Amino acid sequence: MCADTVYVWEDDPGAPPSSRSPVARPAPKLDQPPLPVVIEGSVPGAFHSSDYKLRYWSAADAARRTIDWVKEAVPGELKWHKDVGRKLTVHLDDGERFNAWYNRTGVYFFHGTANNQTIYSAESPDIVSHEMGHAVLDAINPRLFGVNDPQVYAFHEAFGDISSMLSSLTVDGFCSAVIFDTGGDLKKSSRLSRTGEQMAWALRRSRPHKVEQTCLRDAANEFYYMDPMTLPLRAPAVQLCAEEHSFSRVFSAAFLDALAETFYGNTVERLQDSAKEMAKILVAAVAATPMSTRHFADVAAHMLAVDRVMYSGSHSVELRAAFVDRGILSLSESSELTQAVLDSGTEAIERVIGAETLEWPELSAMPMPGARYGLRENFLVIAPSEPPRFVNPVPPNGDDENRPQRAATFFVDSLFSQGEIRVPDELITEKSPMYRQIESYTHEIVRAASGLYELRRVGFDDSNEGKGHP
Ligand SMILES: [Zn+2]
C-alpha cells in the first residue's frame, strides 16, 4: 500500500551542507497512460530506511512531473519508443559511478562517494527529469536518436535540461520560490536554471573543472552560438565546446530566455501558463524539424512557425529576441523568416500536432571509411542529410558545400576519440590499438542483416567522469 503523502526533494537535494528540506507531495501514480513508468525495486514500506524512501519517492515524483508537463504539451496519445515497451523502467541504483543514462531499455541511475558522502543520482529530481526528457524526446521524435551530428546530439541534452525546468515548474511551491528568489526575472541564475547542484558538488571534489561552480549546467549563462565543428571536443566547464552537454547550454539558455521574456505578472499561475505555452511550442517544433546540420536554428524557426499556428504569432517578438540574442538565429535569418515563409510550413506542423502516429521518411546512411579509424571494413552512419525547412543549409558566413558529410565525420571522430564506440573484434586491426572492449559506451558498430556494418546508438550517457571509462 502506498501512503497518500510522500516526502521528496523539490528539485535537487542541493550541495552539502544543504539547508533544503524534503517537501510533502501526493504519492505519484505512475502506471497510467500516457507514458506509464515502473520503478524497479520495492515500493517503500515500514522496513525501508528513510533514505531509501526519500530516494524512491523523489525519483517517482520527478518521473510523474515529467509526464505531467509532457501530457499538457502533447495533445495526442504519446507512447514510449517501441523498443522501450509499454512502460519505461526506472532503475534507481544500477551500481557505483557518478552517472545517469537513458537507453531504449530504461533510465538508469547510480551512486558514488565524495568526501565520505554517498550521492545517488536518482535522488535529484533535476537529474531524473533530465533522463526522462531523453526518453520523452525519443517518444516525440525518435529520429534524433540515431543521427550523427553534434548539434542534434546536443539538442537531446538541451531537451533534457529543459525537461528538468518544465518538470520543476509543475510544482506550485517551487514556482513561488523561484519568483521570490529572482524577483520575477527568470534570466537570473536560480534553482530553475541550475541543474544538479548536489552531483556537481560531488564531482568538483575530484574534477573541479568538469562542472560549473554551482551546478552541472546553468541555463542562465552567457554562451553564444558557434558552429560546433569549429569548437574543441572538450574544455573546462566555463567555456563552450562541442561536447554535447557543454554545447547544449546554448539552446537551453535560449529557451530560458524565451520563457523569461514571455513571463509577466509574477504569479505562480502566470508562470505555469508561460511554461505550458513554451512547452507546447517546443514539442511541436521538435516533432516537425528535419534532421539537418542546422538543427538549433531550424528548431528555433519551427518554434516561430508553431507559434503562428497555435498562438497567431503572439510570442514572435520574445522568441526572436531569445534566439537572436544567443546567435542561434542571425539577424538576417530572423528577418528572412517572414510570416509568409513561416506559414509555408503550416501543413507540416499541423500534421505533427495531435498526430497519433507519425510517419517519418527514412534517413539516408552514408559509408564511413573504416580505414580512417584503423578498422578492417567500412561502416554506414546516418548523416544529418535532410535540408532544413526554414533556414539556409549553409550557416551565415559558412562556405561548406558538404556539411552533412563533414558533420557526420566530425561527430564519428568525436565518438572514437572519446572512446564511446564499441567495435566488434573482427574489425580491429593492428592500426586500431585504442579500441579496447569498454564497459560503458553510447554507440556500437554492428553487422546488420544486410551483411554491412552500421554505427548505431545505444543510449545517452550523462557520465561526468569521462566517457567510456567508468
Ligand atoms: Zn543527458
From TrEMBL:
Gene3D superfamilies xrefs: 3.10.170.10
Region of interest (Disordered), ranges: 11-31
InterPro entries membership: Peptidase_M4_domain (IPR013856)
Superkingdom of origin: Bacteria
Domain Peptidase M4 intervals: 83-137
Compositionally biased residues, Low complexity: 17-27
Protein name in UniProt: Peptidase M4 domain-containing protein
